[in-house]
Amino acid sequence: MHARANVTSVLSFSRSALLAAGVALAVLSGCDRGSTPSTGTTGSTGAAGDIVIGHYGSLTGAEATFGLSTDNGIRLAVEEINAAGGVNMGGKSHKIVLKSEDTEGKPEKAGTVVTKLITADKVAAVIGEVASSVTLAGAPVAQQFGVPMITPSSTNPQCTAVGDMIFRVCFIDPFQGYACAKFAASDLKVKQAAILFDQASAYSVGLKDEFEKNFTKLGGQIVAVEAYTKGESNFNPLLTKIRETGAELLFIPGYYTDVANIALQARKLGMTMPLLGGDGWDSSDLAKNGGAAIEGSFYSNHYASDQPTPEIQSFVRKYKEKFGGETPDGLAALGYDAARVLFDAMQRAGTTDGAKLRDAIASTKDFKGVTGTISINEKRDAVKPAVIVEMKGGKPVFRARVEP
User: Fold this and answer.
1) What is the tens place of the pLDDT at every residue in 116-166?
2) How many CB atoms within 10 Å of residue 321?
3) Any idea what the Cα angle at residue 380 is, between residues 118 and 19, rounded to 5°?
4) Please, where in the chain does CATH 3.40.50.2300 lie?
């Protein structure tokens, strides 16, 4: 019952988000949804031959660390490509100019800012968003204008289903849900699990569904499914219900802002079972806000900064040097990879023409990224592994790797 009722609410939310994007497009561009304006199909270069790209993300608001980390990763990639001479297309080098816009993490703002990036800033491509619900609102605008878009970290399967201009460099929720379920069953040896999810989030609902399905297939039992809405402050009634089931694990497929609060209240209720979640936990604010309550918990992620691979350690070193010693989270790594995949595609396409650039992104195979080797499949999704990290000493530490 929980699944059916809440999936319906998310579908309604997604339709509202898509409608909002369409309204913003119609108002700001005055175009018909059946036509494709020329802005994105010809690409964009400035007077000096610069190529302008856009990023839209939550630079302020409740999930600001998501957008800021992603923006930092993109900026590092831009700095590197420009230091190397820029993107080489047809024997000519072009510097990259980045334009970033703030969504505040609100789907209703996505259509407006993506329209601005395309019509006013004349971007050749768009990177964003982090949150799947916001991506679902912004992607139709990029699709309408024929401008390629790469989301670094929106894992809901419907994001790339918007159209053939929309790509991602992260894994998707069906795989992430499987990775979490497999870790719970195989590594933690859990037999009974409870789920507490955000019913208003496409990301949270999708990940809840996939964990539930896969954990059951692996022989586990879901003993409770409870729903909340982002921003709630009192989780005690829901947690008390879950405590009474005797669950050995609590799966929370939400964002770090709510997870820290849930963890604090769960521990006060004497709930000592491990907590497990998805990549929405990935923020330095998780440990800052959750403290000891989040210690010993786990979440799936796109990379772990302590993995000893040359690609990861080189990226961590360069990021720390540029951003005051800050350790890059998974969102920063994905922003970096999204930008580098885009630059690689531009060089292979030899143009910023929307259709040709789209085809070049679609043909990405075995790209060596910080978050793994990236290949884009026929659904414009990245095929790549996931890692599970454990919170130790206030930091995420590599625990396991799960292959697709």
Assistant:
1) 999 999 999 999 999 999 999 999 999 999 999 999 999 999 999 999 999
2) 10
3) 50
4) 9-171+312-383, 173-301
